[in-house]
Amino acid sequence: MAGSAVAAGAVSRVALAALPEPVSQTSAATMAPLQPDSGRPYHPVVTLNGWTLPWRMNRGVKEFHLVAEPVVREMAPGFKAHLWGYNGQSPGPTIEVVEGDRVRLFVTNRLPEATAVHWHGQRLPNGMDGVTGLTQPGIAPGKTFVYEFVARRPGTFMYHPHADEMVQMAMGMMGFWVTHPKAPTPLIERVDRDFCFLLSSYDIEPGSYTPKIATMTDFNLWTFNSRIFPGIDSLNVRRGDRVRIRIGNLSMTNHPIHLHGHEFSVTGTDGGPVPRGARWPEVTTDVAVGQMRQIEFIADAEGDWALHCHKSHHTMNAMGHNVPTLIGVDHSGLAKKINNLIPDYMVMGERGMADMTEMEMPIPDNTVPMMTGEGPFGSVEMGGMFTVLKVRAGQKPGDYGDPGWFKHPAGTVARESVAALAEPSRSTSGGGQAMPRRDPSAASAEVRVRKPAGGHGTH
Ligand SMILES: [Cu+2]
After folding, report:
1. Residue 355 · residue 288 · CB < 8 Å
2. Can you give the pTM of this predicted structure?
3. CA 78 to chain centre
4. Can you give the residue ranges of every domain in the chain?
5. Angle (nearest 5°) at CA 168 between 164 and 172
6. How far is the CA of 276 from the centre of ligand 1 (A)?
7. How far is the CA of 422 from the centre of ligand 1 (A)?
8. Which CATH superfamily, name and number, covers 1-318+377-406?
9. Would you state the pLDDT for residue 325?
10. How does the average pLDDT of the chain come out, rounded?
11. Which of 66, 158, 228, 326 has its CB 3.0 to 4.6 Å from that of 248, i.e. a possible disulfide?
């Protein structure tokens, strides 16, 4: 896709009167940044497992053509979901413009129901805001609407339907939008690498292909740009690069996004750049529902650093959740008895859930193991919202290729200790500062923690 934007001079007057030819993408790979070959120059972003929509210049107006349509999104190798999206993918392509650009967006609806596109965070005429019923009629199936406005303020934005929202967003309709500054500004630093992705969630039963659109909280797939680990590409940077990562949340819950090995600051939101005096160092930032955060840091530490949502259920893939906690439970003998009744039955979980990654469990077609991903030291035991920031001294400027696993300097990897274990010293105190028990003769109780069954609808 990269570099395929149509230059103004290459398009005839007749062609300019017609709709811009829609560009479609079949691959879920991370595309190289789309270097602008018309309009004001800017430093393009890289969309994680995504791409930027080419445009054409029509008498000074940047014209884009979005097609809302059913798509097949490969969420991870071997796992395809039937979603709705734009121009062949979910999320749709990233739209990149420059502050002050006049933008004309054609939206063709190839869905079975009406839609509309809301340009989240933009300053625009009210009638361009894309809210069905409030600012425009819905775009009926088969129809094309045109939106036109000036991209007035630089920053991090997104687009999504404002029509039958629950269904259309649960089906994957969303996309990123970046407005680059037209001139250097004190609050928007020039960066060497600029990544973006959206957070979304789906409820797709193992063995099926289409999200359950009525699900409100109990999702089983947590995604960066409709991809799940280990299907999410790594973010590959050169040591010393100033790196910006832009994240928008169009799921139904918040995601504390955590980066290992570096401190970052939040330099902007969908409301604009954060004043310098209001920035502070973080290693985790919570991205609430409907919010966008752009984080920045100097990637000065070489290595393979995890970048993930800190909610542990969001770094897992599809599974049944009605699983009791079995850690510490001895089921020796139990499996044999059940096996007489159900030959394929497996007992799992007595040493924690990591056992599941070791088991060659038969799983339904078109599903992924609950946690997976092979690292250089074995299974990473992760899924969902997890990827890796790879920082390398040898990564060339502008090279986004995967450098492979980090080669650790000798003596810098955690290793097994072979020293003998000493007996731990134990406290002999009979109690601390707590109030004495009312009835000291009552038997003491030992509590065994067991997760409640019946789903995980409350996290
Ligand atoms: Cu999360």
Report:
1. no
2. 0.83
3. 19
4. 1-318+377-406, 325-366
5. 165
6. 27
7. 40
8. Cupredoxins -  blue copper proteins (2.60.40.420)
9. 45
10. 86
11. 158
